[in-house]
Amino acid sequence: MSNAMTKKITMQQIADHLGVSKFVVSKALSGKGGVSESTKERVIQAASQLGYFAQKNAYMKNVRRDVPTAGAGGNKQSVLVLMPNIRFQTRDSLYWGKILDGISARLEEIGLGMVIISEQSIDHFLHILNPNGILGLIGVGEISTSLLLEVHRIGLPMVLVDHEDPLIPSDTIFVNNYDCMSRLTKHLIGIGHKRMNFIGNARYSRSFHDRWIAFRSVLEENQLQTDMKEEWLFQLEGIQDFQEQIKLWAIRKQRAGQLPTAVLCANDMIAIDAVNAFNELGLAVPHDISVTGFDNIEDAYRTKPALTTVNVPKEAMGKKAVEQLLLRIDKKQEPLEKILILGEVIYRESITRLVQKQHS
């Protein structure tokens, strides 16, 4: 048994598993192209399931890296920060920008440089990347599997912030999304809310998914709205301008006499759009409907009324990513970690205790 466990997984085994040639597997895993995107995905998935990527240095170039000492002389070594400019992942973002601030502050403290890449194309990425002088990589937000595979193949140690890839193993840093949303949902039940909805695309990211699952679990535990289970989630489409979608949804709910007394939004940006949509319909927040967000971006307390939300320690996540990367460079063989930074519910004016009306 132990023999089988320690056997190396080869490209030939992946090829046999999929019924393709070893040449196809080699091309798909080399990142050099020559195979279709769908074939590549199948190969990556099979390789992951068979444990190919989990093997230490099974197919990676082994690049020696030493953890730097502060103020070390010679050429300054750098950490690569990869944040593909997709959706709203930019330096100007009130969320992602703060994570970057944390990364850069910590790197500065220990005397390391930072190279930010917002490239999505693998070819360009490889062109930019010269592994010499690059200690490792911190990925911020959503990054494609193909790009992460390339980083993994080169053998760069990496840590991902607020993202994980089901196929490419790495250390990850998240806020404790599930616990925080669970606490927030329970609080609303505690102040009298029984008809609530979650607003956001549950498939958008791992964090959104965890927040939705927490909301759903609390409703199930408390046996609320069991007749309306499919209505618990209002799944937003696209990535911006949610105000109109929320407004049309609220009109439908009002007409059906099913307007919730509270909505819990997947993040603050969605919550702010929800407040604006409700205002347009003449619904006062929180008097007619309570609204919560998540992240505690700066706009959350500038909104009228100020938004009840969850504070995600964004800079702390960035700093922790740097520390975890240095630890990973130093101890390559240690098990990978998923690190949760604790968030905190912040109660502001956008929610209110529900006074039971006669007809409820």
UniProtKB/TrEMBL annotation:
Coiled-coil zones: none
Residue stretches making up the HTH lacI-type domain: 9-65
Top-level taxonomic group: Bacteria
Alphabetical list of InterPro entries matching this protein: HTH_LacI (IPR000843), LacI/GalR-like_sensor (IPR046335), Lambda_DNA-bd_dom_sf (IPR010982), Peripla_BP_I (IPR028082)
One MF term in the entry's GO annotations: transcription cis-regulatory region binding
Pfam families referenced in this protein's UniProt entry, alphabetically: LacI, Peripla_BP_3
DNA-binding among keywords: yes
SMART domains, per database record: HTH_LACI
Alphabetically ordered keywords of this record: DNA-binding, Repressor, Transcription, Transcription regulation
Protein's UniProt keywords contain Ubl conjugation: no
Official protein name in the record: Alanine racemase
Organism: Xylanibacillus composti
